[in-house]
Amino acid sequence: MAIVGYARVSTAGQSLEAQLSALNGCDIIFQEKESGAKSEREELNRMLEYVRGGDTVKITKLCRLARNTKHLLEVVEMLDSKEVSLQVLNLGIDTSSPTGRLMVTLIGAIATFERQLILERQAEGIAIAKVKGKYKGRKPTARAKREKAQELITKGNNKSQVARELGISLSSVYRILK
User: Fold this and answer.
1) 6 neighbors 34 (Cβ within 8 angstroms)
2) Long-range pairs for 117-124: beta carbons < 8 A, 24 or more residues apart
3) Which of 3, 48, 76, 116 has its CA 20 to 30 A from that of 60?
4) Contacts of 24 (CB under 8 A, 6+ apart)
5) pLDDT above 70: residue 174
6) Which residues contact 38 (CB under 8 A, 6 or more apart)?
């Protein structure tokens, strides 16, 4: 029976340090820097394949495991089918009991609802700001550099060099050149 940790942050600029510290004492910790919006995450999948009956998976927060209730319930169901319990450290929830499973489901549903409300309020705020002329969106940085990008390509620079020199992504260079 192993204690398995799972830690995730959304971007490369974020640190896993606090989660790893909280998961200290786990036999193995799967960690990744990947968006929670993606249900197909390499380390999450590896962790789910790794665990065996009697194991316990520990996470620091529910949002580190899943972004929405559907995905959360799928993961919990998979763990249940393998007779693996889930512990959510910041909430003190353990799915080895019926009460723990109920709490994970309720809190997951509430978190999804809250996220939807935030997105709705954000969209309303943007719409109001647009009407008032205060919101114009992000400036199209790559499009503004179209001529310079084409000039650099014409001079024989490869696309990666152009992206680096102009401070834009490689995909933006490809988009500009289409």
Assistant:
1) no
2) none
3) 116
4) none
5) yes
6) none
CA 96, CA 86: separation in Å to the nearest integer?
Answer: 7
- pLDDT per position as a tens digit, 4-13: 999 999 877 7
- Clarify whether 85 is annotated catalytic: no
Amino acid at 24: N
Under a CB-based contact definition with an 8 Å cutoff, are residues 57 and 84 in contact?
yes
Looking at residue 148, its pLDDT comes to 87
The C-alpha atoms of residue 16 and residue 23 are separated, in whole angstroms, by 11
Task: Judge residue 108's burial from the number of C-beta atoms within 10 Å of its C-beta, 0-12 exposed, 13-18 middle, 19 or more buried.
Answer: buried
Helix (H, G, I), strand (E, B) or coil at 170: helix
Helices (H), the chain: 17-22, 42-50, 69-81, 98-131, 141-144, 146-154, 159-166, 170-177
Model confidence at 44: pLDDT above 90: yes
Which residues neighbour 177 within 8 Å (Cβ) at sequence distance 6 or greater? 149, 150, 153, 159
Query: For the segment 155-172, what is each residue's pLDDT rounded down to a tens digit?
Result: 888 888 888 888 888 888
**Confidence (pLDDT) at 108:** 81
Q: Are 59 and 86 in contact (CB under 8 A)?
A: yes
pTM value surpassing 0.90: no
